[in-house]
């Protein structure tokens, strides 16, 4: 074929439509597309960046419900000349998932497994399906998809195809390009086709076809013929060559594989509609050997010897990564399981029998040098824990306390395995040359792929120039080693400009011709790979980054006291978009909305403080877009622990609500539930009467309407005798008190709703040898005011509490919290609200859960034997702040076989599930794990939940079960009685006192509540 038949290269960058065109584009998308069309400021802010250093605000977002809807969306964009970006999980690290374009987000609806062919080990999927979700559905067939990136809980197959992803298991199964059978794709100009390997007869038919289909295949043949020699010369012969387009897939030995060609093209050539994947059997047996070395370069030198044992995965981890995890308290159990050393190789071995795997592990251990220590695990728990050490790499190396912030930009190079050790030595010398210190290096060492995050200064011209100079030198270094700029993360914008160093100008022209063949108008994800934007352009921060620094109520000690730094904390890894495990993020799991993930909310807050001229959020604390995104945040604090960089969205939400409603009327729920402690004290004047009134249907409806409470909810029943009243009647402390004095904190929920828990706790603590004190003055932790953003009141309430407890705190008396959410306030929030009071620090250090106190101060006390099975729901705030290890230990000592659920948030989450408009999301969260587990428990199995919200959610869900608190289980064991929850009950309308008295009480309550509202307004 003559050179004139080569496709013309793409030669220009597209221009975004003018403002007038955007309106027309949005209207037509709404008219023609079966999906959600969003051009609002909040959505555009949420999609303005990915996991990279780059930021480009999209034109709008389309969430298609079907593949056909996505096809129609592309057609509408074509009619308006609008750039297009098709994306999945949005976790890309090179900037390929953000653009000034219409974004197609497949993850909400386009996530189906369409068919499975177990005999041929294939399946067909839509591009939005998450890898872990797919593998769960395939497990019944004994099959799985081989490549497994570290983001497997949340990355989508479409994104994996776009990036040509790999992960640790690529050691055994190869990259995505090695595990694809066919793709159904759509070009920007409307050509829809299934592509894959093409034999000679089929290729002859396709090149002879009329129209664009024939034009495309004739162009591909011409490209193959023109560039085959250069591909052989310039494409590195390494397993992790991910940079550039896969022109090698067109070579004869690859069977003219057009699906392979398009894999890794980062949405710059086509939109992937469906994919037929090649599957592999799930390994029957596996083990993990960890080898310890003096340094990471020595470990890298040893990789070729380890490869002789044919590992399924071979990962490298250096001492810096381990140190950072220790500093951030990540994976503490797993870190104890590492061998001696300052660098590690993690070697996974698989086989069909246990004996085979053991023999291979022993052979590896016998062959290692004598000075290399090792550990060896075969059980699933230890292996899983150790893999978390490696998979936590990105999060562990970002936002390390006491260290400068680190960034992507040179995080994914790959070199020949036999040269890896020398490459790392040269890379470390380059770090020193540019004064970047000693960044952690880790990665897929069995394939020569190195990950790192570097402390680039991305906020000054000098720092950005230094970053560019470093990256250019690093690219030269990799090319000199015969390596690839990218080993799995793709090129995007961070490496697109550097590809000429690796491939040379002739192959770059070949890439431009390939782009011109599929996308001649350069509308598909423009500025990435081909005609790329500069690597120091479109930075999320940049030399002109001067964010708004608002005054705040919380002190943000982990972010230098700056809300703008807190808003920049998210690195976009997307763990909050996982569907199972941990707590984060319940609202995303219920809605599958980017804006209702921790990451999406963080993006909006970043745009709120961002002063860039194109920032979509321009009204600061008054932003309705930010308010709406935060509305479905349950303030569960799951992200405080589950997020790799400890984003604390509950605190950010409280801060935002405080300012948003300052000197404005608040939602009714902020008064009824934010002021619940005060309301409860008023109700204590006549609890039986109030309970009787709220048992009358029309009264309950009216009360809920006036209080902004969801009509589907029942009004909780108030106890007729509060815990503190019982304490007074009891006459104070009893017992020997040989273990010292403790203060039992009378939180609002225990005191006014479930006082039996307080009584049980006193019984247990006295039996364990403590002398108990209970404050009899009205006190509160301020939780309900914090969660509704009434931070001025919360600070005053906390200050009063400190005054009440001050003498006990200065004597070192422990404070025992029974309600986890209130305990978490003392352990976390209080110090950030009142940072200058040393007694607040004492409160934080001296507050303990019941289980923590018993483990730490009564280690020799044997709890009563209960000998029962239990389903246990951890409160989210306990999970995030205090942890649950002590509770596990006490339950173990008591003979309780505890199934501690890893089922996420209960969904009630304090005031959240009671607020009008939140019921459906609240119940969806509960149905994701908690309620099915409770329903599945037999009658002999205890249901435990220390949190009032968790107990109430189960109570009101029609399960027929009323959960117990740990204190109640232990107290029942002390006397040998059955563990049965003692809860207040509504007496019914017949219990109403005479009408006059009822009216007087109701009137008094109404006046009191009105005074409370007026007082709230004054305090704000």
Outline the structure in words:
By secondary structure, the protein is of the alpha/beta class. It is built from 44 helices and 25 strands. A 7-stranded antiparallel β-sheet has the order 15-12-14-13-17-18-16. Helix 1 packs antiparallel against helix 3 (67-80) and helix 35 packs across helix 38. The N and C termini lie far apart (78 Å).
Short overview:
The protein has about 1000 residues and is an alpha/beta fold. The protein contains 44 helices and 25 strands.
Number of strands: 25
Taken as a percent bin, the fraction of beta residues is 5-15%
Relative helix content: 40-55%
Mean pLDDT: 94
Major sheet? 7 strands, antiparallel
Give the SSE layout.
Elements: H1 19-32, E1 35-38, H2 41-46, E2 60-64, H3 67-80, E3 84-87, E4 102-105, E5 113-117, E6 122-125, H4 131-138, E7 143-144, H5 157-163, H6 170-173, E8 180-186, E9 192-196, H7 200-207, H8 211-234, H9 258-262, E10 271-278, E11 280-281, E12 285-293, H10 296-301, H11 303-307, E13 313-318, H12 319-327, H13 332-335, E14 343-351, H14 354-367, E15 373-377, H15 380-391, H16 393-396, E16 413-414, H17 420-433, E17 441-443, E18 449-452, H18 461-480, H19 499-518, H20 563-568, H21 586-591, H22 598-609, H23 624-631, H24 638-642, H25 649-660, H26 668-672, H27 676-683, H28 687-694, H29 697-707, H30 723-730, E19 741-744, H31 748-752, H32 755-767, E20 771-773, H33 783-787, H34 791-810, E21 815-817, H35 820-833, H36 838-846, E22 847-849, H37 850-857, E23 868-873, H38 876-882, H39 885-893, E24 896-900, H40 919-927, H41 930-936, E25 942-945, H42 948-955, H43 966-975, H44 995-1019
Parallel strand pairs: 2-4, 3-4, 19-20, 19-21, 21-22, 23-24, 23-25
Antiparallel strand pairs: 1-2, 5-6, 6-10, 7-11, 8-9, 8-10, 12-14, 12-15, 13-14, 13-17, 16-18, 17-18
């Amino acid at each position: 074929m003559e050179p004139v038949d080569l496709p013309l290269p793409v030669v220009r960058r597209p221009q975004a439509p003018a403002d007038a065109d955007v309106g027309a584009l949005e209207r037509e998308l709404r008219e023609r597309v079966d999906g959600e069309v969003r051009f609002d400021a909040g959505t555009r802010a949420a999609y303005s960046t990915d996991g990279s250093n780059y930021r480009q605000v999209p034109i709008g977002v389309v969430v298609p419900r079907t593949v056909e809807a996505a096809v129609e969306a592309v057609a509408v964009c074509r009619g308006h000349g609008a750039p297009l970006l098709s994306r999945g999980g949005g976790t890309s690290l090179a900037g390929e998932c953000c653009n000034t374009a219409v974004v197609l987000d497949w993850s909400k609806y386009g996530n189906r497994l369409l068919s499975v062919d177990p005999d041929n080990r294939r399946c067909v999927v839509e591009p939005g399906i998450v890898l872990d979700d797919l593998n769960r559905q395939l497990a019944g067939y004994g099959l799985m998809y081989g490549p497994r990136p570290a983001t497997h809980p949340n990355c989508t197959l479409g994104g994996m195809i776009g990036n040509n992803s790999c992960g640790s298991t690529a050691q055994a199964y190869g990259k995505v390009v090695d595990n694809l059978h066919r793709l159904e794709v759509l070009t920007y100009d409307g050509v829809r086709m299934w592509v894959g390997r093409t034999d000679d007869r089929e290729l002859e038919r396709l090149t002879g076809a009329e129209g664009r289909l024939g034009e495309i295949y004739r162009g591909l043949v011409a490209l193959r013929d023109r560039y085959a020699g250069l591909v052989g010369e310039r494409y590195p012969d390494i397993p992790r060559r991910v940079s550039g387009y896969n022109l090698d897939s067109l070579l004869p030995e690859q069977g003219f594989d057009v699906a392979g060609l398009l894999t890794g093209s980062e949405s710059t050539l086509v939109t992937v509609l469906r994919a037929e994947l090649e599957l592999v059997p799930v390994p029957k047996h596996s083990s993990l050997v960890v080898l310890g070395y003096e340094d990471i370069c020595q470990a890298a030198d040893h990789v070729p010897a380890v490869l002789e044992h044919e590992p399924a995965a071979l990962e490298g981890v250096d001492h810096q990564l381990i140190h950072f995890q220790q500093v951030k308290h990540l994976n503490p159990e797993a870190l104890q399981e590492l061998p001696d050393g300052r660098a590690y190789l993690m070697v996974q071995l698989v086989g069909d029998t246990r004996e085979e795997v053991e023999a291979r592990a022993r052979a590896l251990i016998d062959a290692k040098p004598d000075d290399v220590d090792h550990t060896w695990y075969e059980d699933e728990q230890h292996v899983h824990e150790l893999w978390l050490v490696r998979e936590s790499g990105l999060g562990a190396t970002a936002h390390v306390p006491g260290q400068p912030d680190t960034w992507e930009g040179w995080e994914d190079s790959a070199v020949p395995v036999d040269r890896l050790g020398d490459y790392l030595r040269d890379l470390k010398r380059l770090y020193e040359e540019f004064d970047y210190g000693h960044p952690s290096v880790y990665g897929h060492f069995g394939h020569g792929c190195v990950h790192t995050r570097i402390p680039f200064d991305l906020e000054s011209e000098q720092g950005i120039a230094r970053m560019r100079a470093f990256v250019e030198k690093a690219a030269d270094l990799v090319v000199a080693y015969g390596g690839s700029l990218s080993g799995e993360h793709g090129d995007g914008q961070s490496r697109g400009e550097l590809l000429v160093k690796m491939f040379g100008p002739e192959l770059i022209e070949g890439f431009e011709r390939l782009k011109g063949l599929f996308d001649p108008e350069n509308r598909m994800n423009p500025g990435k790979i081909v005609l790329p934007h500069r690597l120091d352009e479109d930075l999320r921060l940049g030399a002109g980054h001067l964010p708004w620094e608002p005054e705040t109520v919380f002190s943000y000690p982990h972010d230098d006291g700056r809300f703008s730094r807190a808003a920049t904390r998210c690195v976009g890894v997307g763990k909050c978009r996982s569907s199972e495990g941990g707590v984060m993020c319940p609202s995303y799991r219920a809605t599958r909305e980017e804006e209702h993930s921790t990451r999406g909310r963080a993006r909006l807050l970043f745009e709120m403080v961002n002063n860039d001229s194109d920032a979509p959020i321009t009204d600061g604390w008054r932003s309705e877009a930010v308010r709406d995104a935060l509305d479905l945040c349950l303030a569960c604090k799951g992200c405080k622990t589950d997020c790799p960089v400890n984003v604390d969205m509950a605190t950010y939400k409280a801060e935002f609500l405080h300012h948003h409603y300052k000197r404005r009327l608040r939602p009714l729920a902020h008064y009824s539930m934010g002021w619940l402690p005060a309301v409860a004290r008023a109700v204590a004047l006549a609890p039986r009467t109030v309970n009787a009134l709220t048992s009358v249907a029309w009264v309950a409806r009216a009360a809920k309407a006036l209080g902004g409470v969801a009509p589907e909810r029942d009004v909780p029943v108030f106890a007729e005798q509060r815990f503190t009243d019982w304490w007074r009647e009891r006459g104070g402390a009893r017992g020997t008190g040989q273990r010292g004095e403790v203060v039992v904190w009378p939180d609002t929920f225990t005191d006014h709703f479930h006082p039996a828990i307080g009584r049980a706790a006193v019984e247990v603590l006295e039996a364990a040898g403590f002398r108990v004190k209970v404050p009899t003055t009205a006190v509160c932790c301020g939780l309900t005011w914090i969660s509704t953003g009434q931070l001025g009141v919360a600070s005053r309430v906390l200050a009063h509490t400190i005054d009440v407890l001050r003498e006990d705190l200065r004597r070192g008396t422990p404070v025992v919290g029974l309600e986890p959410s209130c305990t978490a306030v003392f352990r976390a929030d209080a110090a950030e609200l009142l940072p200058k009071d040393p007694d607040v620090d004492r409160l934080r250090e001296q507050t303990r859960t019941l289980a923590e106190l018993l483990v730490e101060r009564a280690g020799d006390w044997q709890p009563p034997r209960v000998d029962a099975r239990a389903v246990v729901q951890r409160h989210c705030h306990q999970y995030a702040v205090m942890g649950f290890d002590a509770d596990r230990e006490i339950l173990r000592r008591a003979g309780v076989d505890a199934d501690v659920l890893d089922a996420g948030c209960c969904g009630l989450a304090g005031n959240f599930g009671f607020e009008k408009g939140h019921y459906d999301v609240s119940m969806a969260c509960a149905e994701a794990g908690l309620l099915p587990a409770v329903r599945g428990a037999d009658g002999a199995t205890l249901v435990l939940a220390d949190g009032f919200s968790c107990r109430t959610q189960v109570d009101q869900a029609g399960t027929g079960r009323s959960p117990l608190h740990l204190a109640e289980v232990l107290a029942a064991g002390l006397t040998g009685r059955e563990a049965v929850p003692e809860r207040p009950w509504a007496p019914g309308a017949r219990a109403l006192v005479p009408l006059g008295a009822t009216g007087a009480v109701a009137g008094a309550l109404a006046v009191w509540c009105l005074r409370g509202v007026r007082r709230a307004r004054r305090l704000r």
